[in-house]
Design brief:
Bound molecules: adenosine-5'-triphosphate, magnesium ion
Structural class: alpha/beta
CATH topology of the largest domain: Rossmann fold
Shape: elongated
CATH class of the largest domain: Alpha Beta
Low-confidence stretches: 294-302
Strand order of the largest sheet: 7-8-9-4-10-11
Radius of gyration: 23 Å
Helix content: 25-40%
C-alpha cells in the first residue's frame, strides 16, 4: 500500500458553519506533507476529522487503506499524533509520562527514546506541572518520535520550541523520512515547512487552495529582480507585470509576475553591471496568497 493518508470528500460543519469543505487528498507513503493555513483555517479540524477524533459531517478518511471511522483502533496502530493542544497528568514526572504514553502506544524503541531525551535536552525528572511550555511540548515530540510509527501526524509540533530545539526537531523528522515513515505536518513556521516538506497543502477558510511542491507553487508569486548600472537605472514602470519598483542610487529592484522577457530586454538594453533574479520563498508565496485577503477568524459556537 503506497498511500498513507487518503481523504474522500472529508467535510466538517459546525451548524451552518463549514469548518472544512470537502477535502480530497492523498499522502504517499514516505512523503512529508506540509499543511499550512492561517489561524482558524481548519488545520486542526482536518487532522481531528481525518483521525476520527471528531465525527466528520461528510466523507471519510483512510490510513494505509483502513477507514478511520469504521476501524479506528486498527488505523491508530499505525499513527503517532501530536495534538495542537494537550494536557498531561500534572503530578507525574516527565519520565513517568513518557513511560505511560509509551505503554498506551504499545511499541517503543527505548534506545531511541533515550537518544531523543538527550537530543532535546529534556530533563525527565521534573513534575509535568513544573515544565515550561516548550518543555511540555518536548514530551509530545519525544512520545511521538519514540514509537517510530508508520505515520506521524503533527499539529504545530514546534510551538514553544527555541531555535536549537527546532533544529533538533527538523533533524528527527528527516531521520523519520529516511526510515520510511510518513509525516503530515501542520505548521505556521514557513521556514520549517520549506526545509522539510516534499509537498505543501495550503488551506484557506476551510478550503484547500493549493497542493503541490514548492516549485510547482512558485508561479503564484512574483520573481524578484535586481540590477545595477553604471548610471541611472532605466524606467521599467510601463512594463507588464512589473511592480514594487525601488531605485536606490544605481540599483533597481522590482518584482515581476508572468513573463520576464520584456523586463529582461529593457534591463539588458541598458547594459547592467549585475543582474540577479530570485524565486519567491514560501513566505513570499504565502503572503501573496493571503496578503489582500481578510483572514477568517470568526470563532463559532456550535
Ligand atoms: N467545536 C467547534 N464548534 C464550532 N466551531 C469550531 C469548533 N472547533 C473549531 N471551530 C471553528 O472551525 C474553524 C477552524 O478551526 P481550526 O481549529 O481547525 O483552525 P486551525 O487552522 O487549526 O487554526 P490555528 O492555526 O489557530 O490552530 C475556526 O473558525 C473555528 O472557530
Ligand atoms: Mg489548530
Amino acid at each position: 500500500m503506497d498511500v498513507a493518508i487518503k481523504t474522500i470528500g472529508l467535510t466538517k460543519q459546525y451548524g451552518s458553519f463549514v469548518a472544512l469543505e470537502p477535502l480530497n487528498i492523498e499522502v504517499k507513503k514516505g512523503e512529508i506533507l506540509g499543511y499550512l493555513g492561517p489561524n482558524g483555517a481548519g488545520k486542526t479540524t482536518t487532522i481531528r476529522s481525518m483521525l476520527g477524533l471528531i465525527k466528520p459531517t461528510g466523507g471519510r478518511a483512510e490510513i494505509f487503506g483502513i477507514d478511520t471511522q469504521a476501524n479506528k483502533v486498527e488505523a491508530h496502530k499505525h499513527i503517532a499524533y501530536i495534538p495542537g493542544e494537550s494536557t498531561f497528568w500534572p503530578n507525574l514526572t516527565g519520565a513517568e509520562t513518557l513511560y505511560l504514553l509509551g505503554r498506551i502506544n504499545g511499541a517503543v524503541d527505548n534506545k531511541y527514546m533515550a537518544e531523543l531525551i538527550k537530543r532535546f535536552q529534556f530533563d525527565v525528572s521534573k513534575k509535568v506541572r513544573a515544565y515550561s511550555k516548550g518543555n511540555r511540548q518536548k514530551i509530545n515530540i519525544i512520545a511521538a518520535l519514540m514509537t517510530k510509527a508508520d505515520l506521524l501526524i503533527m499539529d504545530e509540533p514546534t510551538t514553544g520550541l527555541d531555535p536549537i530545539m527546532e533544529q533538533a526537531f527538523k533533524e528527527c523528522v528527516m531521520e523519520a523520512k529516511a526510515n520510511g515513515q510518513t509525516v503530515f505536518l501542520s505548521s505556521h513556521i514557513l521556514e520549517e515547512v520549506e526545509a522539510l516538506c516534499d509537498r505543501i497543502g495550503i488551506l484557506r477558510s476551510g478550503k484547500l487552495v493549493e497542493l503541490g511542491t514548492l516549485s510547482e507553487m512558485r508561479h503564484l508569486a512574483a520573481l524578484t529582480v535586481q540590477a545595477t548600472f553604471e548610471n541611472k537605472p532605466p524606467k521599467v514602470d510601463h512594463i507588464k507585470g512589473v511592480s514594487g519598483i525601488k531605485v536606490v542610487g544605481h540599483q533597481l529592484t522590482c518584482q515581476v509576475q508572468g513573463s520576464i522577457d520584456p523586463l529582461f530586454s529593457a534591463l539588458v538594453a541598458a547594459h547592467p553591471k549585475t543582474l540577479l533574479s530570485r524565486e519567491p520563498s514560501l513566505e513570499e508565496l504565502f503572503l501573496s496568497l493571503y496578503g489582500e485577503e481578510e483572514v477568517r477568524n470568526k470563532d463559532q459556537v456550535s
